[in-house]
Design brief:
This protein has 627 residues and is mostly helical. The protein has 26 helices and 2 strands. Strands 1-2 form a two-stranded antiparallel ribbon. A hairpin with a 2-residue loop joins strand 1 and strand 2. Helix 1 runs antiparallel to helix 2, helix 18 runs parallel beside helix 21 and helix 20 runs parallel beside helix 23. The longest helix has 48 residues. The radius of gyration is 31 Å and the shape is elongated.
């Protein structure tokens, strides 16, 4: 623990980074809902202060050697105290900067995208609520405090996904996201209880300490880590809880960029990185994490290959890339997972915001329709979209190339080559589905006539263009800072996290597969006279499998209908009717019956009582007289 007096600037910056968004949320909801401009100014100003505070902390502690813990007593009893405060280390400082930067750019972009919306003030209030929950989550010093803000992130995401609640599909998507993520969070909470049972503490410093493995039985450690990982599966939309994320695209596009590509869903990967020393103490846990990440990466990539909804393709891509991050962490290299999380936040937010420009202008999510409507005439978002796609595909010199290479290097150091082979397949599929969208939009088959082209299609509003330019610049340049970022994160990872030697053939192979995926996509969708029909479409059974998301939603519906509705719910209903109600009704009926029998003794028949009384008196008189 460090003296609070010596680090008062850190405390002030941490408070500013976390509480200013909450202050904006409170003021907008209570006082300024009827004043949209004031609401937007408050929200953007608050997240701007948070971003400046995060950058201040990052620069101030760029060479940090140990965590800075600033806590106070929240609650407790004799011999036990539950703290509440701030935990600053390279992992939290990096994530805090990423979150505040993306939130700031998205809120600026939203000034143009959400202009004129009837819920403008409510939108910025919910954005501020999300920013408060997410920033507080990143600097939590205990697992319980993190869980509290983890749930608040889920609440704010529910509100933002269903922001246009007049649409039935939006409300359904919000409920689906809330229910599926809660399923993982129940297991997460059970894991927290097991950690507390085994260690008697929920502080990250105690949980990640090397001696924690000696203090907990191996089985308890493994089970608790797997339960926590269930929460990661839900929040990061990994297999099998992965189908809620594409449906969550019903919200406004800036919401998709913020919650479901750059920050909220990345919270699961952040949690795994935060608990990396604890997870790595169990080989079983790491193997299961690797398997789940690999399956999620491949399944989501196949789903993206057959969708024409531009936002859903990026949603599937997010699931796939999060799976790749988890694979990097499960391979034992925390840096590679965090590095890809950082670069992915930039280029995926860029892809969503570029898509938002097209959707805002043309009113459709269909990539092929956008191509026919001459979306390529909007040069800035189209150029930025291509930059984002090249980064997503892992092509140099864009940031995705460097972060994916670090994960491939980590996987190459494992004894089992199947993980690296699966990741390379994922590289090929990613380039294929990403460039497929580009060719559908950039090189349409039969463009529509342009005589009635609207004037606003020739440019992009400056307030929406600025975030695109900044994110494109970050996407181009961030990869060159991989060495500096690795040096910064060495304060949070041990040298054993870097056991992998660089293989010269690996980046060449990965880049070659990405180029092959792009070329195949051009042959099928881009070249003149192309059939514009992917190879998957030539196999109807495979096409149906991918379009129906490997029938996962059908499985969930079957389980809900047969297991929950007809099984558990029917059993509970019958138990309630026959056992609980039966016992209570039977007791009540017997009580009523006994009352009726007893009532016969005083049914109001006076003549019978007089006769009985007379008889008793006569018998008593005779008894005393004769005796």
């Amino acid at each position: 623990m460090i003296d609070l007096i010596a680090i008062s600037p850190d405390l002030m910056a941490a408070v500013s980074a976390t509480l200013t968004p909450f202050a904006a949320f409170f003021l907008i909801i209570i006082f300024f809902r009827a004043r949209p401009k004031v609401s937007a100014a408050l929200s953007i100003g608050a997240i701007g202060v948070a971003f400046i505070s995060a950058v201040f902390l990052l620069i101030r502690h760029w060479e940090i050697t140990g965590p800075i813990v600033m806590t106070g007593r929240w609650m407790g009893t004799k011999g036990f105290t539950l703290p509440f405060g701030f935990f600053l280390d390279p992992v939290s400082l990096l994530m805090l900067t990423v979150v505040t930067a993306i939130c700031l750019l998205v809120q600026i972009y939203s000034l143009g995208y959400m202009a004129g919306d009837s819920g403008f003030s409510r939108y910025y209030a919910e954005m501020s609520l999300f920013a408060w929950a997410m920033t507080s989550l990143t600097v939590s010093p205990t697992l319980l405090q993190l869980y509290i803000f983890w749930e608040l992130v889920g609440l704010s995401s529910y509100l933002l996904i269903g922001f246009w609640f007049e649409k039935f599909s939006a409300t359904q998507a919000g409920k689906k996201a809330f229910v599926m993520t809660r399923a993982g969070d129940v297991a997460f909470f059970l894991g927290i209880l097991l950690v507390f049972y085994g260690l008697g503490s929920l502080n990250f410093t105690d949980i990640n300490a090397p001696e924690s493995a000696a203090r907990m039985p191996p089985l308890l450690l493994t089970v608790s880590a797997l339960l926590i990982f269930c929460g990661i599966i839900g929040k990061s939309a990994q297999f099998p809880l992965m189908t809620w994320l594409p449906d969550a695209m019903e919200g406004p596009t800036p919401v998709s960029a913020l919650l479901h590509s750059a920050t909220m869903v990345a919270a699961g990967v952040f949690l795994m990185a935060r608990l990396f020393p604890y997870f790595s103490q169990s080989e079983t846990v790491m193997t299961i994490c690797m398997s789940v990440g690999c399956i999620s990466m491949l399944l989501a990539a196949t789903m993206a290959m057959v969708s024409r909804d531009i936002k859903q393709v990026w949603a599937y891509s997010t699931i796939s890339q999060l799976g790749l991050m988890i694979m990097g962490l499960a391979a034992g290299d925390r840096f590679s997972g965090l590095f890809h999380l950082t670069t992915h936040a930039g280029f995926k937010a860029l892809l969503f915001l570029c898509s938002g420009v097209f959707i805002h202008a043309f009113g459709t999510n269909d990539a092929q329709t956008l191509g026919k409507k001459h979306c390529r005439r909007m040069k800035l978002p189209m150029i930025c979209l291509v930059i984002g796609v090249m980064a997503l595909s892992g092509l140099p010199p864009f940031s995705g190339f460097f972060s994916k290479e670090s994960i491939m290097t980590a996987l190459a150091g494992l004894n089992n080559p199947i993980w690296l082979a699966a990741a390379l397949v994922g590289v090929f599929l990613t380039a294929y589905y990403a460039f497929r969208l580009v060719f559908l939009m950039l090189l349409p088959d039969k463009p529509e006539e342009t005589a009635n082209e609207a004037p606003h299609l020739h440019g992009v509003a400056g307030v929406m263009a600025l975030p695109l330019i900044i994110l494109a610049g970050v996407t181009v340049g961030m990869g060159f800072f991989d060495t500096d970022l690795a040096g910064f994160l060495r304060g949070a990872v041990t040298p054993s996290d870097y056991p992998f030697s660089h293989s010269p053939w690996l980046p060449i192979t990965a880049m070659g597969l990405a180029v092959m995926g792009g070329l195949l996509s051009w042959v099928e969708f881009g070249r003149s006279g192309a059939a514009r029909k992917g190879f998957v479409a030539r196999v109807p059974a495979l096409l149906n499998l991918f379009q129906n998301r490997w029938y996962l939603d059908h499985l969930y519906r079957f389980l809900v209908d047969r297991v929950i509705d007809r099984g558990i719910s029917r059993f509970c209903a019958q138990n309630d009717q026959r056992v609980i109600d039966g016992v209570i009704d039977g007791f009540a009926e017997e009580t009523v019956s006994a009352g009726r029998r007893v009532s016969m003794l005083h049914a109001g028949m006076i003549q019978h009582r007089i006769v009985v009384t007379f008889a008793i008196v006569v018998f008593l008189a005779l008894y005393f007289f004769l005796s």
